[in-house]
Write a structure and sequence with these properties.
Elements: E1 6-7, H1 10-14, E2 22-25, H2 36-49, E3 55-59, E4 81-86, H3 93-100, E5 105-108, H4 111-122, E6 127-130, E7 156-160, E8 163-169, E9 175-179, E10 182-184, E11 189-190, H5 200-208, E12 213-218, E13 220-222, E14 241-244, H6 278-287, E15 295-298, H7 305-312, E16 320-322, E17 327-328, E18 331-332, E19 341-342, E20 346-347, H8 350-358, E21 364-368, E22 371-372, E23 378-379, E24 382-383, E25 386-387, H9 393-399, E26 402-406, E27 410-411, E28 414-417, E29 422-426, E30 429-430, E31 453-455, E32 459-464, E33 467-473, H10 479-484, E34 491-498, H11 510-514
Parallel strand pairs: 1-14, 2-3, 2-9, 3-4, 4-5, 9-12, 10-13, 12-14, 15-16, 15-21, 21-26, 26-31, 33-34
Antiparallel strand pairs: 6-8, 7-8, 10-11, 17-20, 18-19, 22-23, 24-25, 27-30, 28-29, 31-32, 32-33
Helix pairs in contact: 4-5, 4-8, 6-7
């Protein structure tokens, strides 16, 4: 008899998960490749019968929409999950609160480490050996990636030929939950309608070689041998069950997008420009640092605004923009669709993208920050009442040629634009602090070729001789007013320049005119 994957309901798939099981959930961000109907069914079963309980949950990226109980937010119930191995919780308000309260525990790991660890598990190797995480809270000499101090050690240090590495041990995974666009009756998966390839293949291989089962949510099931073999991203040999959900959107906010799937390109005019204000000023100043013909990563949040600036000025073609979800070229999406892209030239899987980032393939990366200290160290992973996790931040920042950090000078400030400058209606809380709540980036242990730059709406800083140094200030802002809004007094350059007044001009063309050796598009 020819092999066939068994088609089951989401509820039947949920019943496959036993108490104490290790479950890997595929997908990224706000609904990209997330088997949402299966996660919802798991939650429904837990609330009805109290099972499955005490799960170990593994996820590469943050999964949720910041508002509802989607993604891993479905697991925000006492007793449901015992331990998380994940990278990001900013989309999961209730789950984050439970982690902070100690109702659950987590090993908060770099995203690239988790998806690369799937390959080590699949290959039967003892674990992942990498420099990623050294000098950050992941390092056992700091916090060892533990959400709470009393947790057992997971990350370990080791030395090979006198060089320090971190070791992330492998562990078996019994259930894998992934999503694809279509499967044939045998279970061969195609992801042509999806905005990313994710780590579906590596996750499925890890589960199968752990002796587990893989469930794939798909929009439809096709006849045997009807899928072009070159378009199959996950072979049927790795798939046990199919859950058919024809109405599943490609992200939590987008039902379907042929632009995200790469079927066609959209005109630059279809990309909504950034409104005037601090975020646009920051993104414009950051874009000035771009150089033609370079490979660039753009993070989320404020940093993602750089892509919008490039589209607004027709400059996206003069350099190669990438995101960790695997796109090359084009324009990364913003907001809750972040992780997708339009007009891209190529799409690869997530673990392979992180391989290239780890090896130093990026010329520049533009990342948002939450806190910065006098030594130029950065925190984005845990602060105040938030345990957000690093996502791909640690993987990306460690060996990029240059890291450019973007953010507001203070958190919660209310500013109004007053010509080429700012009127401050309400000052916020310092983001430049003497002591970080957690270390997510340390320039002393990173391997960047060029010193980092820190850009805010009111000032620009550089790392000089290991100290944060103020080098530019916005028109109309006094030096002392900027320093008064900080939690420490930075070094001040001998000549502090004024940020260009044209940053505040609504007219497009500023970045193009100021970029070095701007190439024709």
């Amino acid at each position: 008899m020819p092999r066939e994957a068994r088609v089951v309901t989401a509820g039947e798939a949920a019943a496959l998960v036993a108490d104490g099981t290790s479950v890997a959930v595929g997908g990224t961000g706000c609904g990209h490749l997330v088997a949402e109907s299966v996660l919802a069914a798991l939650e429904e079963r837990f609330l009805e019968v109290g099972r499955p309980k005490d799960l170990t949950l593994v996820h590469t990226m943050g999964l949720g929409d910041q508002k509802t109980n989607r993604g891993i937010e479905h697991f925000a119930h006492s007793g449901f999950v015992k331990t998380f191995y994940g990278s990001h919780y900013a989309h999961n308000k209730n789950l984050m609160a439970m982690l902070l309260a100690g109702e659950m525990s987590a090993y908060v790991l770099p995203a690239g480490v988790i998806c690369q660890l799937y390959r080590e598990i699949a290959a039967g190797r003892p674990g992942l050996i990498t420099k990623t995480g050294i000098g950050t809270f992941v390092d056992p000499e700091l916090e060892g990636a533990r959400s709470h101090p009393g947790m057992a050690e997971y990350v370990r240090r080791l030395e090979i030929d006198g060089v320090r590495y971190l070791f992330y041990p492998s562990f078996p995974i019994q259930v894998g939950l992934i999503r694809a666009s279509v499967a044939d009756v045998e279970g061969n998966l195609c992801m042509l309608d999806e905005p990313a390839l994710g780590d579906n293949l590596q996750l499925a291989q890890a589960v199968k070689n752990s002796g587990g089962v893989v469930v794939a949510q798909v929009a439809q099931v096709a006849a045997r041998h009807s899928l072009p073999s070159r378009l199959v991203q996950v072979p049927a040999a790795l798939i046990d069950y199919l859950v058919v959900e024809p109405d599943a959107p490609v992200t939590y906010v987008t039902k379907r997008s042929d632009a995200y799937s790469g079927r066609y390109r959209v005109p630059a005019t279809a990309i909504e420009p950034l409104p005037g204000g601090p975020r646009k000023v920051i993104a414009r100043r950051a874009a000035q640092l771009l150089k033609p013909d370079t490979l660039v990563n753009l993070g989320f949040g404020v940093a993602n605004g750089v892509a919008t600036i490039l589209a607004e000025e027709g400059l996206e073609a003069i350099l190669n923009l990438t995101v960790e979800q695997g796109t090359y070229g084009g324009n990364p999406a913003v907001g809750l669709d972040a992780g997708a892209a339009v007009n891209y030239d190529a799409l690869i899987d997530v673990p392979t993208q992180f391989d290239f980032y780890d090896g130093g393939g990026l010329d520049q990366t533009f990342l948002s920050f939450a806190q910065v200290d006098p030594r130029g160290r950065v925190n984005v992973s845990r602060f105040a009442d938030k345990l957000t996790g690093p996502g791909g931040f640690i993987d990306i920042s460690r060996r990029a040629g240059q890291v450019v950090f973007l953010g507001m000078l203070t958190a919660g400030a209310r500013l109004t634009q007053a010509g080429a400058g700012w009127g401050i209606e309400r000052e916020g809380l310092p983001k430049f602090v003497s002591t970080l709540d957690q270390v997510t980036y340390d320039p002393a242990t990173a391997e960047n070729r060029i010193s980092p730059v820190y850009i805010t709406e009111r000032a620009v800083f550089e790392l000089r001789s290991g100290r944060l140094t103020l080098t530019e200030i916005a028109p109309g802002c006094s030096l002392e007013s900027v320093i008064a809004a900080m939690g420490f007094r930075p070094e001040v350059a001998a000549e502090v320049k004024e940020m260009p007044a044209r940053l505040f001009d609504a007219e497009a063309g500023f970045v193009r005119s100021s970029m070095p050796e701007a190439a024709p598009v």
